[in-house]
Amino acid sequence: MKAFIFDMDGVIIDSEPLHNKIVRSILAENNIIVTNEEFNKFTGMASTAVFDIFIKQNNLPYTPEQLSKRQMDKLKNYIVEHHVKPIEGIIPLIQKLHDKNIPLAIASSSPLDMIEFTTKKFGINEYFTTLISGEDLPHSKPAPDIYLKTAKMLDIAPSDCVALEDSKNGSIAAKSAGMYCIGFANPNSGNQDLSAANIIVNKITDIDIDKL
After folding, report:
1. Is the pLDDT of residue 53 over 90?
2. Quick check: 16 pLDDT over 90?
3. Which CATH architecture has domain 16-81?
4. pLDDT tens for residues 158-167?
5. Residue 139: CA atoms inside 13 Å, Cβ hemisphere, count?
6. CA-to-CA distance for 68 and 71, rounded, in angstroms?
7. 3-14+86-211: which CATH architecture?
8. Average pLDDT score, the chain
9. Domain segments of the chain: what residues?
10. NCBIfam families in the record, alphabetically (predicted)?
């Protein structure tokens, strides 16, 4: 392992249920009802990609960027008002990797300003050398684009990178990029198929970086 790459939603912050609730509420305003089970398949995808699907299917008079901004504004307000904390064990893991001089990056489907907001809110922005948003890429997870770009930005071969993911789409993206993938079975991320991952952990504290 020469680099460690984190997904953000469902890995650093337990935000998947919040994304789910907020996106579905925005869709419901437009008379589009989506069940939790139906929505789980979109976990890990960029919100612009998700909104693009529903905009095209329902001929909505918005752009994906407009709806994504509404979603992120609502999410930021919720995080601040409810004092949302990092996922248990994630800060010590980041600190341990940093202490071993392992380059760290975030490869998230969230917009870059949301990634920056979250890392600053949790006081961990100084640990990361690279922050990459999937919204800046033509193909969202499960395509490998975001992980290939992150490895390129780190100047480290994908085969020397470890990725931490909580979703089916994310784990497929990491593996398709040629990385070693740790699947985090976060129950709040829905019933995700993490079979693409090399290993699956139920708690962040189960990750032993000395074995990577």
Report:
1. yes
2. no
3. Orthogonal Bundle (1.10)
4. 999 999 999 9
5. 12
6. 5
7. 3-Layer(aba) Sandwich (3.40)
8. 95
9. 3-14+86-211, 16-81
10. HAD-SF-IA-v1, HAD-SF-IA-v3
